Amino acid sequence: MPTYELAIIGEQDVILSFKAVGVQTYAVSNSDEAAETLHRLVREGKHAVIFITETAAGNILPIIQEYSTRALPSIVLIPGRHGSVGLASERIRRIVEKAVGADILFGKEGR
Q1: Which residues are CB-neighbours of 78 under 8 A, at least 6 positions away?
Q2: What is the DSSP string of 26-50?
Q3: How far apart are CA 81 and CA 15, in angstroms?
Q4: Which residues of 18-38 are buried (b: 16+ CB within 10 A; e: fewer)?
Q5: Are 94 and 65 in contact (CB under 8 A)?
Q6: Under a CB-based contact definition with an 8 Å cutoff, are residues 81 and 55 in contact?
Q7: Dihedral sign (CA 110, 96, 76, 86)
Q8: How far apart are the C-alpha atoms of 45 and 48, rounded to whole Å?
Q9: What is the pLDDT along the chain (111 residues), one digit of tens a residue?
């Protein structure tokens, strides 16, 4: 059975604390770097979960959506330097709505 790793992509000051718990950190300063890093990590195929800050993910959501159809890696959005901008909760809402046919998280019926 293969051993998978955890990774995080985002702003240096946000991701630094993840290094202390053994998560591989990848600091980026713009969406091009974030996209390039994400593509590389997925291509390498050794990560089960890739966390990405909402700030870093903001302009590469179509790429993240494309990878979400794969079993691995799971790409999880987390709040960035300035807190949550709602991307993570919106993504989770869409996934749940697709799975059950209704928005059970925020009380809106299926669209």
Answers
A1: 8, 10, 51, 52, 53, 54, 88
A2: EE-SSHHHHHHHHHHHHHHT-EEEE
A3: 9
A4: beeeebbbbbbeebeebbebb
A5: no
A6: yes
A7: positive
A8: 8
A9: 778 999 999 999 989 988 988 999 999 999 999 999 999 999 999 999 999 998 899 899 999 989 988 889 989 888 877 656 566 656 655 555 555 565 545 555 444
Are 21 and 66 spatial neighbours (Cβ–Cβ below 8 Å)?
no
Longest CA span, the chain = 42
Instruction: Determine contact, residues 49/73, Cβ cutoff 8 Å.
Output: yes
d(CA 17, CA 15): 6
